């Protein structure tokens, strides 16, 4: 078997590859905000009004003039007359005068004349319609001021932001019911291999059911794309070329599983190079798992040749497919959520190579521990039992038990 010509560090390979991928798709669509979770805003959104629109209490207590509480303490309380209770959902029916207080609930509108709220637990009744204030409050304490969250005209969602639950709720709170989002990138998924059969097939000796098409399609959907499976192709250049051409004509990116190694039987790189310029940019990474990965661009459309082993394919997809889809979606950069965790056992590695180990995360003594799952790269359920991937950087020759490492969290939502 011939060796790979050059094994690039994953970070360098990713940066190089992304430079050839268009920064975003241009097509947009109008969506209801309630249907836009996970979509990418096509243009900035500005607040049509301040939020909150009026001064609101952030606690249950009494609306007061802060000056009336100065110096108050348990040993020397301030005495205030209770003018009444403030109704929710409407303008207060009265103003406060010096020496007065009003019972207010969380979210209630402060009456004119008040500028702070004393928490209920720092008051007690003294006599009818009078309270003792046992602690002084400063002006603005326990109060949400108009525009404190966002001011009128302020940008609340930037172009290229992927909408999460806070953005959805915030836009609804401003009365913004629709927005323009970028079209979701369509990603073609092709499986190759004479031994691979559909999941519904009764397998014969030497055959395996197709795992990668489905796990990778799920990852694409989770990352904000639309997966289009094109089926299973034999180890024949003509068949793969026809399938890849169709996928490139119909999709914005393509994933090919298996056929990425350097054996004479694997023709993926050769076929990709016939599909458009510049073709294969990277063939081989200093990484485990996933060494034989292919990174290519064909006339502006990213193509990845992934290893056939299910764990290797998913690990590489996690590291490379998500950043590519983010770029196509116009999302700047990619944050892989990670935590620091102590290893429970020694982990070997090789200097100059990045390693990723699936791991279970366990919280012990208010700290996270990472328990590696030792696996073979064709065993998919070894990854399904993992909470994250332990990252061993390329300058390390392994990590010892008790050392801390970055663990990239695998989404379970």
* Low-pLDDT residue spans: none
CATH superfamily of the largest domain: MoaB/Mog-like domain
Structural class: alpha/beta
Shape verdict? elongated
Strand order of the largest sheet: 7-4-6-5-9-8
Describe this structure in words.
With 413 residues, the protein is α/β, with parallel strands linked by helices. The chain folds into four domains: 10-26 and 184-328, Molybdenum Cofactor Biosythetic Enzyme, Chain A; 29-49 and 151-182, Molybdopterin biosynthesis moea protein, domain 2 (Alpha-Beta Complex); 56-144, Molybdopterin biosynthesis moeA protein, domain 3 (Beta Complex); 338-409, Beta Barrel (Beta-clip), CATH 2.40.340. Helix content is 18%, strand content 31%. It contains seven helices and 28 strands. The protein has helices spanning 10-18, 165-173, 212-222, 237-250, 268-273, 310-328, 380-384, and strands spanning 28-32, 45-46, 56-57, 61-64, 78-85, 100-104, 116-119, 123-127, 130-133, 143-144, 155-157, 178-182, 186-192, 196-197, 208-209, 226-233, 253-257, 278-283, 287-288, 294-298, 301-306, 338-343, 347-348, 354-364, 367-372, 388-392, 398-399, 404-409. The protein has a six-stranded mixed β-sheet with strand order 7-4-6-5-9-8, with no helix packed on it. Strand 24 and strand 25 form a beta hairpin. Helix 3 (212-222) runs parallel beside helix 6.
